[in-house]
């Protein structure tokens, strides 16, 4: 029997030697004594980080435990394990004449599931996997899937945005009616904004979809999210980049958010995403799609599709805070950054000590865009003295753009021009619904107070 570090889970020398001696491989069932107890379970690979002398075992109750080898005795092999690559699922073929929907995977929870026998995570993006998970899709669309990337969403970088856009264009030119991007939720708003600026005259919707909980969990949001994304691709009248996620904590409906107006507002809830300074553009249930606005870009002809790739990654997004050291701006200048986006306070302000280095940056040809730390509302540099001072030195007001959208837009703009006047003009031009000229009161969500509480308050 051959062993190498990968086969035995990249454990340290002590555990490696013991496993070799016992003829134990990863995913084998083992039994051992621990503090007077006899435990049994599946030997798992060691995580990338942590103590190499800790044995990782999945117990029969489903929990993983880590036990230092010093506390393990009488280790024995119970049964050799199968090195499963994935759980087999039944293939359900699509019907002829159904529209083609392309699914491009980039990683994230929606593109994986856990094998609870081995404890490993496997990709689950083949058409068979999706049809098996969401049988309704087989009745409305034929799927073609591709695992373009398999990364954590925090590892997304600008060059991947270009790569994703290329594949979107490829599938539309191949005849797809819609393209779904399976993406991790944490940086989905950055990618959706980037694709919104790259892709023009879309023949159909590009829908980013994620999941807060993987498909193997009873509380998963994967099924409804993926079904909703497919319905959008098949029936939506628009050709835009959008994000679709749960609109409530139950499996009742999903909301379709514009790619430049979306933010993840909760770490774990299924309805974590909100449209910011905008309303969702559509609502989706298992029965179909309902448009919530008449303002959208309709589908274009395929030969009109344009892909405007390119981002300047020497752009920084920084958050102002009380007492912020002006040397931070000096550092960005000295490090040859090409652009700066600042999350200012309220209407878009920073402390007076930052005016001098910001003025220096602008004089050196580095555009500075001011956005707000407030989630809703817009910057207005004409109200208070500090705002007027910022305008005088040449700062660009970010209107009602999200800071992350302003960052992505400035990266995209600077890849096209470094002329400050042209940068200002493009940053203040609405390209992909990222800027609203008016801030409507209904954009700001009301706080829910139970009627019983209100009744008690007024009776007093």
Task: Based on the model shown, name its key terms.
460 residues; alpha/beta; SH3 type barrels; Rossmann fold; 3 domains; five-stranded antiparallel beta sheet; globular; disordered N terminus
Write up this protein:
This protein has eleven helices and 23 strands. The strands form six sheets. The protein has an eight-stranded mixed sheet with strand order 9-6-10-12-13-14-17-18, sandwiched between helices. It folds into three domains: 67 residues, SH3 type barrels (Roll), CATH 2.30.30.520; 208 residues, Rossmann fold; 113 residues, 3-Layer(aba) Sandwich (Rossmann fold), CATH 3.40.50. It is of the alpha/beta class. It starts with 12 loop residues before the first helix and ends with a helix. Helix 3 packs across helix 4.
Brief digest:
This protein is an alpha/beta fold and 460 residues long. The model is unreliable at 1-7 and 84-93 (pLDDT under 50). It is built from eleven helices and 23 strands.
Show the helix and strand layout.
Layout: H1 13-22, E1 29-34, E2 37-43, E3 54-59, E4 64-68, E5 73-79, E6 100-105, E7 112-114, E8 121-123, H2 127-133, E9 142-147, H3 158-174, E10 178-182, H4 188-198, E11 199-200, E12 206-209, H5 222-235, E13 241-246, E14 254-258, E15 262-264, E16 273-275, E17 282-285, E18 288-291, E19 306-307, E20 315-319, H6 327-334, E21 339-344, H7 355-363, E22 368-372, H8 385-393, E23 396-397, H9 403-414, H10 420-427, H11 451-459
Parallel strand pairs: 6-9, 6-10, 10-12, 12-13, 20-21, 21-22, 22-23
Antiparallel strand pairs: 1-2, 1-5, 2-3, 3-4, 7-8, 11-19, 13-14, 14-17, 15-16, 17-18
Helix pairs in contact: 3-4, 4-9, 6-7
């Amino acid at each position: 029997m051959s062993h190498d570090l990968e086969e035995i889970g990249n454990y340290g020398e002590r555990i490696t030697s013991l496993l070799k001696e016992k003829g134990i491989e990863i995913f084998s069932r083992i039994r051992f004594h621990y503090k007077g107890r006899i435990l049994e379970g599946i030997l798992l690979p060691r995580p990338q980080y942590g103590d190499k002398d800790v044995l990782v075992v999945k117990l029969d109750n489903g929990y993983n435990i880590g036990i230092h080898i010093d506390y393990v005795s009488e280790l024995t092999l119970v049964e050799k394990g199968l090195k499963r690559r994935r759980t087999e699922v039944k293939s359900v073929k699509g019907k002829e004449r159904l529209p083609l929907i392309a699914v491009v995977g980039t990683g994230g929870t929606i593109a994986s599931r856990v094998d609870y026998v081995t404890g490993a995570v496997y990709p689950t993006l083949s058409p068979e996997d999706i049809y098996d998970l969401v049988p309704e899709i087989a009745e409305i669309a034929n799927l073609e899937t591709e695992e373009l990337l398999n990364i954590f969403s925090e590892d997304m970088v600008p060059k991947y945005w270009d790569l994703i856009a290329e594949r979107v264009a490829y599938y539309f030119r191949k005849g797809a009616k819609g393209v779904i991007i399976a993406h991790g939720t944490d940086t989905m708003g950055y990618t959706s904004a980037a694709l919104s600026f790259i892709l023009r005259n879309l023949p159909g919707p590009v829908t980013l979809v994620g999941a807060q909980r993987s498909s193997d969990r009873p509380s998963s949001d994967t099924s409804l999210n993926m079904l909703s994304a497919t319905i959008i691709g098949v029936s939506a009248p628009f050709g835009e980049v959008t994000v679709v996620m749960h609109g409530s904590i139950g499996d009742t409906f999903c909301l379709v958010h514009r790619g430049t107006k979306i933010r993840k507002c909760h770490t774990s809830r299924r309805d974590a995403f909100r449209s910011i300074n905008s309303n969702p553009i559509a609502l989706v249930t298992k029965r179909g799609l309902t448009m919530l606005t008449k303002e959208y870009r309709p589908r274009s002809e395929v030969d009109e599709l344009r892909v405007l790739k390119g981002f300047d990654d020497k752009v920084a997004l920084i958050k102002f805070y009380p007492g912020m050291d002006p040397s931070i701006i000096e550092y960005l200048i000295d490090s040859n950054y090409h652009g700066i986006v600042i999350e200012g306070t309220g209407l878009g302000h920073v402390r007076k000590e930052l005016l001098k280095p910001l003025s220096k940056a602008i004089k050196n040809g580095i555009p500075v865009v001011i956005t707000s730390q407030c989630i809703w509302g817009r910057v207005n540099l004409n109200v208070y003295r500090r705002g007027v001072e910022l305008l005088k030195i040449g700062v660009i007001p970010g209107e009602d753009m999200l800071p992350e959208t302003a960052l992505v837009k400035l990266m995209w703009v600077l890849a096209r021009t470094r002329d400050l006047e042209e940068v200002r003009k493009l940053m203040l031009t609405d390209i992909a619904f990222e800027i609203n000229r008016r801030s409507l009161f209904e954009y700001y969500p009301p706080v829910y107070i139970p009627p019983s509480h209100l009744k008690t308050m007024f009776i007093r």
